[in-house]
Amino acid sequence: MNKAVKEIRMVDLKLQYQRLKAEIDAAMAEVINSTQFIKGPQVKTFENNLATYLGAKHVIGCANGTDSLQIAMMALGLQEGDEVITASFTYVATAEVIALLKLKPVLVEVNPDTFTIDPSAIEAAITPKTKAIVPVHLFGQCADMEAIMKIAAKHNLYVIEDNAQAIGADYIFTNGGKKKSGTIGTVGSTSFFPSKNLGCYGDGGALNTNDDELAKKMRMVANHGQSIQYVHDEIGVNSRLDTLQAAVLDVKLKYLDDFASRRRSVADFYDNAFKGLQNVQTPVRAQNSSHVFHQYTLLLKDGNRDEVRKKLETKGIPNMIYYPIPLHKQKAYLTAGSFPITEELCKNVLSLPIHTEFEKEELEFIANEFLEAIK
To answer: Whole-prediction pTM value?
Structure first.
């Protein structure tokens, strides 16, 4: 590795912290001094500020992104045997909570360009038992929500947006209107895992909705099924966003659009460096969505991904595969059917480092080494 380039990380949270250190330290010190570690005032402040940012009526914090999906499905009253449609090309958590609640995950194919769920595949998978759709806003841009919402309205289905990877992205409707990712369906679900665009310093998640009754029910479910202490009207769970994490998130929320801009600049650099390569597909930016680049994911067309990975690693360049095994081939979620696009992606995608603190010489080093690796 070039000695002039410091250690490269997939996500450099240390440098980001150093840039925001004074604000974050002050926010955390306030919580520690108050000792209100659970349900402190910073939780409500963050929920209100995130609701304002998203343009949503209600935000409910919870312990993590997986819990947020589970709480949404519990609050919607989905019953054992109900079918929930989602993509096979996603992280396991999306299907995991469906199965955990004894619902049936119905996995469908994705778009070959954006890698997000294919609306036509959703329509083909609907049965009388279908009750909900979980589109995943993958790698930083939105699924085709306008088409998905039309299908949902036609079949009277709930839409739970898995927004763990695209918070801050804008969906652009055909009439030119815009809404933030996660605010279009029945409910939005997100994760604040540290490496996310809006990440805390531990685990955290949230739900958002414009439905007053649903918001009330989700808040109850997340708090042991109670709205009044020791009065339990619903079967619930114990899933809280703790006060320290809320304090960190409230600081970082002010910088979320800046984070997205910095990530887009990295993506622009990579796009320009890899322009014209016949054997590499750079991320396709959909016309109906902005892209906040949670990941910068390439599709290598020569079937040499593992060889390229090894070459990058010998140069000190980290990289990741999201995702190496499709859900429909996982033992826990085996699904019959044809998924050629998903299977091609799992064999050939490769994500390069992307974060908010890159310097130009680091990007030049990564791009040059990648170009050498694919020769």
So the answer is: 0.96
